[in-house]
Amino acid sequence: MFSFTRFLRRKSNQLDFQTGNLSRLEALDRSTRILVPVEVDESRFSNATLHWKRESACLSLTIKPKSILEIGTLAGDFADFLIKAYLPDKTVLVDYFDAADYVFGEQRFTPETHYSYVKNRFKNDPTIELLKGESSKMLSQLINRNQKFDFIYIDAGHTLEDVTRDLELSHQLLNPGGIIGLNDYIMTDYYYDTVYGVVQATNLFLLHHIEYSVEAFAFNQNLFADIYLKKDHQNLK
Fold first, then answer.
1. Measured CA angle at 96 (ends 94, 98), to 5 deg
2. Top-level class of domain 5-231
3. Could you say which of 5, 58, 90, 124 has the lowest number of CB atoms within 10 Å?
4. Band of the pLDDT at 164, cuts 50, 70, 90?
5. CA–CA dist 232, 237 (Å, integer)
6. How far apart are CA 1 and CA 8, in angstroms?
7. For 33-47, 54-68, 87-101, 175-189, which range has the lowest pLDDT when averaged over its residues?
């Protein structure tokens, strides 16, 4: 696994972004926490398609995956969409399963009932497996099982270190011609003033793995976008 942090650190005066209503001190604090992403060569986008939301992007993919891994599933909503869209032979859902979840102000589950909620949701589908724990440990278990997947969706920890680790482990788990999707391809969560590392980790992954290209990009109404990377079986590293 690569150590990417040293490639990314930049002084705050190299950043040019709209500070909005932030005070000068708040803006400086945010800028010093943001890591500048490397630029991806335009050739990696030559076959990419653009979509208005992630569901549309997934339905347009050039593969119809028969095995799916979702890293960070929360309530299983997106997993449910993928399963119904593709009817895979095997789906593995990885999460800590220790969160609370609300929809339109109504609580669906508590940290104590999170796992049982998702387990009960998919109880009638024997092709679905839940793995409870930290993503790198769960993915390492799958690697030790020699398990492979056609489609992997990453939506777990959003720091540079977390996404870098999950990408590198997913690379080992992906079949030739398979696709890795990443949620929240954005620099910061402006709702919670939280700096993300998804863009930086993804761009560096593309820099170091020339066998991948961008398959699709999907907007989100709040700009928490998705990006999908295809592993080109004609150009394996």
1. 140
2. alpha beta
3. 124
4. very high
5. 9
6. 16
7. 33-47
Under DSSP, the state recorded for 132 is: E
For residue 228, give the H/E element and its range. Answer: strand 225-231
The model's pLDDT over 19-49, given as tens digits with 9 standing for 90+, comes to 344 455 455 555 556 788 999 999 999 999 9
**Is residue 217's pLDDT more than 60?**
yes
- Alpha-carbon torsion, ordered 39, 43, 49, 55, to 10 deg: -50
The β-bridge relationship of strands 174-185 and 149-154 is parallel
User: Does pLDDT of 115 surpass 60?
Assistant: yes
Extract the tokens encoding 110. 């508590």
SS (H, E, C) 61-116: CCCCCCEEEEECCCCCHHHHHHHHHHCCCEEEEEECCCCCEEECCEEEECCCCHHH
Two tokens, residue 221: 């109404």
Among candidates 115, 139, 121, 138, which has minimal Cα distance to 84?
121
For 133, how many CA atoms within 13 A lie in the half-sphere containing its CB?
Answer: 8
164: amino acid identity, one letter: T
Q: Give 92's strand partners.
A: 69, 129
